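Journal club side-thread
Mid-discussion, someone asked how the predicted structure for our own chain would compare to the paper's figures. Pasting it here so we can look after the session.
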Amino acid sequence: MERENNTLVTEFILLGLTQSQQAQLLVFVLVLVFYLIILPGNFLIILTIRSDPGLTAPLYFFLGNLAFLDASYSFIVAPRMLVDFLSEKKIISYRGCITQLFFLHFLGAGEMFLLVVMAFDRYIAICHPLHYSTVMNPRVCYALLLALWLGGFTHSIVQVALILHLPFCGPNKLDNFFCDVPQVIKLACTDTFVVELLMVSNSGLLTLLCFLGLLTSYAVILCRVQGHSSEGKNKALSTCTTHIIIVFLMFGPAIFIYTRPFRAFPADKVVSLFHTVIFPLMNPVIYTLRNQEVKASMKKLLNRHMAY
């Protein structure tokens, strides 16, 4: 049945992470355990920040949004992947594939822009503390939040628009466990060089520039704190180190996947697994484990509820 965009393919077959039954079972158990343990942790972070009046600073406002974005991002791929591990035939409809791809890049880009916003917040807090409350007032925080959501939407809709104009009339086997740009484009029945170039510019170049910009901003912050008191210096170093770890976890796999020509590499699926399932759930947890205020508030919240 022919689609409005001249697409004959109505569904895609996902080849999955691996063809080995033993390896699939191992990954299934690991992902399921990880998912059931870490995902509630993200919601606990959100609940803790929202319920504690002492965690109203912009830093915690953005951390709560990071936990929300990461938790939402983890719902795009992981649940279906777990179901597919137990299915002989892994099929996703054309519309389902495009929808998955849209939300993957929408939330992924939103998180990328959020990390940029968090770096800006730390720069103002550490380098211009006297102006912090004026610059990072609630109105500015909400405006920045709206901007990053709009930025993620714009980025993603461009990706989808480029793919929707491609004809799919032949092979429909995606060599992955989810729908993503590199694999989907390769199935188009036309020359995709220009589209690939646009995709690399839209995803890869943007990701790389944000990554380099973040590293530069944190390098500036670390240089500026050298003259601070020992206590302030240690706190700034701890915060910046945490942010830098999250930046590498978020941007490292994205740079590997999107800043090169869309050619298959042996490590692609493993990198994609960490990028779409493991790291998103870990980011807020890593931050929380290194933040004494959030940990103390979380313990109070748990103790209060356990008392009942």
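Post-session note: Strands lie at 11-14, 91-93, 173-174.
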